[in-house]
Model the fold of this input.
Amino acid sequence: MLLKKQETISCDVLVIGSGGAGLRAAIAAAEKGCDVLIMSKARIGHASNTYLSKAIIASSGWGEFRDTGSVHLDDTLQGGRHLNNPDMVASFTEAIRTETALLRTWGMDYTADENGNPTVIKMPGHSYARHLSGRHFRGSDLVMPLKKKAEDSGVRFQEKTFVSSLLVSENRVRGATGITGDGIFLTIKAGAVVIATGGYGHVFLNTNNAPGITGDGQALALKAGVSLQDMEFVQFYPTAYGKRGSRILLYERILAQDGAVLKNSRGHDILAANGHSPTSITRDELAQVIMKEILAESEQRGGVYMDLTELSDNAAQSVSMHLPAGWFKGGKVFEVVPTAHFCMGGIVTDADGRTSCPGLFVAGEAAAGSHGANRLAGNALAEIIAMGSITGRNAAGSAISLGRTSETDELADNEKQRLAALITQSGPQSGEMTRELKKVMWFNAGILRNQHSLETALKAVMGWKDFRTSVTSGLGGKAGDLIRFLEFRNLRLVSETVCRSALERTETRGAHFRSDYPAEENRAWLKNIRVRQMDTDIMLEHVPVPGTE
Ligand SMILES: Cc1cc2nc3c(=O)[nH]c(=O)nc-3n(C[C@H](O)[C@H](O)[C@H](O)COP(=O)(O)OP(=O)(O)OC[C@H]3O[C@@H](n4cnc5c(N)ncnc54)[C@H](O)[C@@H]3O)c2cc1C
Done:
């Protein structure tokens, strides 16, 4: 029976999520002598954005001697259009030099020259060549050494378990509750908790994020009384193929080749028609151009087409590692769509990873502040590793000083009752509702936004607020059905914060494009928008960017 069986686990530090941020935080806390448990909704290390990544990490210290943490800091603030928290950026751009060296000692291989010295490449927005890459350009280059190091450090793993709530009372976090894949209700008592659940890419129909990246951490924090920030800023990559934009096609490399053309469904060259060059158009601009083409289609709103019919053999050879698999089976034309790639918004923390709730910490893409209004390439992995390390250490310190807690039984019982009350014998299935929500968000609150489209999205999102679900046969149903429904609720709540923040920001900045307010307005908008939950309502607040008060 679903939720009938229950178990309790105790630890000093509970880390929720096993991507790069969670694994790095867990190692740091274990090295401080804490008993650490990582809980993850998928297999440890797998089904995370870190696992899907290309393992490209921005770090000064490996290339030119003139490149320093402070140059990296300046580049990052510029890329974030000055909405970043400068203290956080200073922390991660400085710490990543030591961290990338440490990763090497834990078994991460970087691409290297014939003498075995790591090589660096230059990416847009960075002043110097400073990007290290995993040897196979795969997330596993990074995740597997981290997982092994965590195991060796004595970190305990609880996988395939969905965290449904944080246990908070008397102004401190006391642990969390979880549902295992086979329906067991878990209570985890912890001295400190680190949220490392990643972003909220699955708010949108098209995304290349791992399936479980559904904004759970942001929803957990809101419900625990902790604010979110910058939720309107989501980075979209313009050209992705595969189911719902699951795989990026690097237009920067492919469209730079003679014979590669981006066409609309009427066969017109989109870039030429809009006066753009494939080598100078930015990701944001191209995503907007493509989205306009898609929205102009009256019926079948598919994508646009990367036409490689005229690509010469030599050109194909030079970009062979970036071509879609279908090319090697004779395919020449590939439908591409923009895809939600990275979330700059997230949970508010300070530069130590601390939230406003004592004992509760956040690391990685789940947190706001490091990237401001847009993120530079390679900075996500730099940030999750460096801030994961800093946050894990601080969480350990907090767990040691606050101590473990025994007062969780009543809180856990309340959560169990809440879950049971959500289940009905009949009603709409969460799968259908999730698809509808993602579609509404994609077409109205995604790449192109204006007041009307955002109000349309918000109205639909509010309409789903009180839905319950049908779990095959009440409490005898499947844990997976209940978990999908809880994910839907989290996606809905996070979507509401995205819509409200995007409506509030009446300017265009970084990845936030308002067609009705197309200019960046520094006088009015050099500030962050925070959201918090009061009872069941979402409240907005403007706060000055740290350091500008
Ligand atoms: C395809 C792709 C390629 C990328 N390539 C690069 C790159 O080369 N360089 C770069 O800098 N950035 C890259 N990025 C961005 C970068 O990979 C991510 O920002 C980063 O990996 C996020 O790490 P994280 O640990 O914060 O979250 P994730 O790695 O996404 O991990 C989140 C974890 O939380 C777990 N979780 C979520 N909710 C719950 C819950 N309720 N209960 C329990 N567990 C939960 C998940 O199962 C997962 O284990 C890429 C992103 C994508 C999608």
In short: Residues 132 and 414 are 48 Å apart (CA to CA).
